[in-house]
Amino acid sequence: MHELSLDELRKIQIEILDVVTKFCDDHEINYWLDGGTLIGAVRHKGYIPWDDDIDLGMLRPDYDKFMRLFNEHNTRYKFHCIENDPKFFTPFGKVLDPETILYEPDEKGIKIAVNIDIFVYDNAPDDDVIVKEMFDARDYYRSKFYKRISRVFGPVKGNLLRRLCAYPYRMLKKVFSSSSYFPPEYFVRKIIDVSRRYISADTKCIGNFTGWAKAICDKHAFSSFIDGEFEGKNYKIPVGYDEWLRAFYGDYMQLPPVEERVTHHTFKAYAKD
Fold first, then answer.
1. Cα–Cα distances in Å, from 104 out to 30, 109, 241?
2. pLDDT (tens digit, 9 = 90+) per residue, 169-180?
């Protein structure tokens, strides 16, 4: 195994992206370049120069169809989400390359593989107050998730004696605390419950309730899709991409200050020699 450079990492991500998007086209599953990847396509015709991941978006029906079919038809890459992997740690999905290893944030953290994210979008209620309540509930459960995993795996500060005593204490607290009845994945599922709350309702907007943004957008922005250039190839982007990106980021064409032009991810990635 060797540690991947940024160029090697991106090459693997593009290979995953090509397989996923071809599968979606072959099976009539709509997707779109999302998040920073969509900004990259519109503003840079490729990766944002300091970015190191790929995001796709899907509406719930397409996401569920992709979840049902992808792993049955692909032998190289695997789609993981908590619906098909009960211990998975995000409320959205990832397509992973099992021939690689990726640690977040390092070898002491979570071990997965080089991947692309697939975010799922659900109906957002027409009442802004309820929308805020849903985002607040999502963020509450996410904070509980991070607190839950940090009780055993988080770093301990202080002198050597404090560090030696902390881990047995944490394990005892885990056993005897009432919160031990709720494993980390419980809170991931609660986020999904929040996101699906209006799944059968006839609403005007969709929302990003499983990611980090607090963004909703009129569904007409996703009524059809057009080609967007990304790293020399064309992929689907929403016909209303400008409206969506402005809801998501504001003035997305304005470059951030120089000091903010850095990745927001911490990881180490490896591949076979």
1. 30, 5, 31
2. 344 444 444 445
Please name the residue that has the structure tokens 């009129």. 218
Mark 111-126 as b/e (b = at least 16 C-beta within 10 Å). Answer: ebbbbbbbbbbbbbbe
Mean pLDDT of 1-21: 97
Exposure b/e, 31-59, CB count within 10 A at least 16 = b: bbbbbbbbbbbbeeebbbeebbbbbbbbb
Phi (first) and psi of residue 85, to 5 degrees:
-140, 95
Closest by Cα among 157, 147, 210 to 180: 147
20-29, 86-95, 179-188, 200-209: range with lowest mean pLDDT: 179-188
Alpha helices in 40-127 (DSSP H): 60-73
DSSP H or E run through 3: strand 2-3
Query: Distance from CA of residue 25 to its chain's centroid?
Result: 21
Taken in order 205, 213, 91, 13, the sign of the CA dihedral is: positive
Helices 184-195 and 128-153 meet at what angle, rounded to 10?
170
Contact, 239 vs 221, CB < 8 A?
yes
pLDDT average, residue stretch 55-77: 97
272 pLDDT band, cuts 50/70/90, is confident
Could you tell me which residues are beta bridge partners of residue 120?
Answer: 58
Helix 160-176 with 128-153: angle, nearest 10 deg: 120
Q: What tokens does 240 get?
A: 């209303």
Quick one: pLDDT at residue 163?
44
- pTM for the model stands at 0.88
Contact 118, 56 (CB under 8 A): yes
Residue labelled with tokens 């021939």: 99
